[in-house]
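ok, trying the design again with the full structure, not the truncated one.
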């Protein structure tokens, strides 16, 4: 989770205090970075992951990882 560079609307880097952040599931070249692969596999099987005060999900279209404060 700490390897993911979460972003906020507008493209800036998210801070721990942000209530919502996102990251693309794939890189610009279409590859899936290894730090995201296991998380995506988990989310496809379970739908949601709770980490500390955050809930991690994947968008319905599968293009984004989403982090929101619970």
């Amino acid at each position: 989770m700490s390897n993911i560079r979460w972003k906020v609307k507008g493209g800036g880097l998210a801070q721990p205090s942000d209530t919502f952040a996102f990251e693309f599931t794939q890189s610009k070249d279409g590859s899936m970075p290894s730090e995201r692969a296991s998380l995506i596999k988990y989310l496809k099987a379970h739908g949601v992951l709770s980490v500390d005060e955050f809930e991690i999900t994947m968008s319905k279209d599968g293009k984004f990882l989403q982090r929101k404060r619970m």
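Keeping the full-length input from now on. The CA atoms of residues 42 and 59 lie 14 Å apart.
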